[in-house]
Design a protein that fits this description.
Strand content: over 45%
Number of strands: 13
Helix content: under 10%
Order of helices and strands: EEEEEEEEEEEEE
Structural class: mainly beta
Largest sheet: 6 strands, antiparallel
Distance between the termini: 20 Å
Radius of gyration: 16 Å
Number of helices: 0
């Protein structure tokens, strides 16, 4: 069967399971028809509340001479007076390795985060994401945010087609352009996963 199941696991992480193919990551392909400045946006599910020690963790891969920018923003008070604040901005080549980002969230109500990748000055600029987690976020008796390895689907994340120029892609193995993007996913550490 297909579908998403969610339950609390170790360290107050809401674990998502998608009954599908394991081993994926998300990436943006900077090759044609992309042009400098094009952006791809992916948004998390809405989170009603988080605990005071809440952190957003994920792994990213930004390889190539033409890498643009990776932004992580948090939108709060979604249903009333939305405000947006930047949590992370990375630009340019970050090396041929998966690197971890840990961003403090703290106590929040009614929020979501958005990850935006922009194309740099050439096709050598793929940006990839994997293993998105919100840890230590479970408030007492409230819903909590989740995690996504992209192994089995999108885990409630949405590719925001209204505010971007192209899409995040789910992939296994390497990206199609030589010397850009990862050669394997972070979760499994090999090219058989996604």
């Amino acid at each position: 069967s297909s579908g998403i199941n969610a339950e609390y696991g170790d360290q107050d992480r809401l674990q998502f399971t998608w009954h599908g193919k394991p081993g994926t990551y998300m990436y943006v392909e900077a090759s044609s028809p992309r042009k400098p400045g094009d952006k791809a946006t992916i948004s998390s599910p809405r989170v009603p509340m988080s605990g005071s020690r809440c952190e957003l963790e994920f792994w990213y891969h930004m390889l190539g001479d033409g890498v643009g920018m990776l932004l992580v923003n948090m939108e709060e008070n979604i249903n009333y007076y939305p405000t947006t604040r930047n949590l992370l901005t990375l630009t340019g080549n970050q090396g041929d390795k998966w690197q971890q980002a840990k961003l403090p969230i703290g106590f929040r109500e009614d929020f979501r985060f958005t990850i935006i990748a922009t194309v740099g000055n050439s096709y050598e600029g793929d940006i990839a994401l994997d293993d998105i987690k919100m840890v230590n976020c479970k408030p007492s008796e409230s819903e909590s945010p989740g995690e996504c390895t992209f192994d089995k689907g999108m885990c409630g994340f949405v590719d925001d087609t209204n505010f971007d120029d192209f899409d995040w892609l789910r992939n296994s193995g390497g990206t199609p352009s030589y010397w850009t993007g990862p050669t394997r996913d972070h979760t499994r550490g090999n090219n058989t996963g996604y």
